[in-house]
Amino acid sequence: MCGTCLANSPIEPHSGVGILKGFIRLNLPLTTGLQTPVLIGELELAPGITRQAVLDVIDPNLLYPDQALQAIGVPSNEPDHYDCVFRTSNKEES
């Protein structure tokens, strides 16, 4: 949608689930505002659409390829803004 006003863009609901393809642990901030250490995962959001996202997990040893992770909105430092992180189900980390 480059060059298109987002206010005029259609709203497309998604399941909020991403399929984990792989992940890395960053120990140095690669961008302003990124708190380290942090896990960054590559997630398939829909067939053929992959994105990198922050993973919010207690134990990275419980992550595995093709695992379904749930998108969760978390408050940002900016007013009226939420960030998106991905988590495993609570059962997996109990």
Q: What is the percentage of strand-forming residues?
A: 35-45%
Radius of gyration: 15 Å
Task: Work out the helicity level.
Answer: under 10%
Structural class: mainly beta
- Major beta-sheet overview: 5 strands, mixed, barrel
| Tally of contiguous helical segments | 0
**Total number of strands:** 5
Apparent shape: globular
Provide mean pLDDT, rounded.
82
Secondary-structure element pattern, one letter each: EEEEE
Strand order within the widest sheet?
Answer: 1-2-3-5-4
Count of domains:
1
* Poorly predicted runs of 5 or more residues: none
Distance between the termini: 40 Å
Describe the secondary-structure layout:
Elements: E1 17-26, E2 38-46, E3 49-55, E4 68-75, E5 82-87
Key terms:
94 residues; mainly beta; five-stranded mixed beta barrel; 0% helix; 43% strand; globular
Q: Could you characterize the architecture of this molecule?
A:
The chain is an all-beta fold. The chain has one domain. 0% of the residues lie in helices and 43% in strands. The protein starts with 16 loop residues before the first strand and ends in a 7-residue tail after the last strand. The model has no long low-confidence stretch (mean pLDDT 82).
Write a brief structural summary.
The chain is mainly beta.
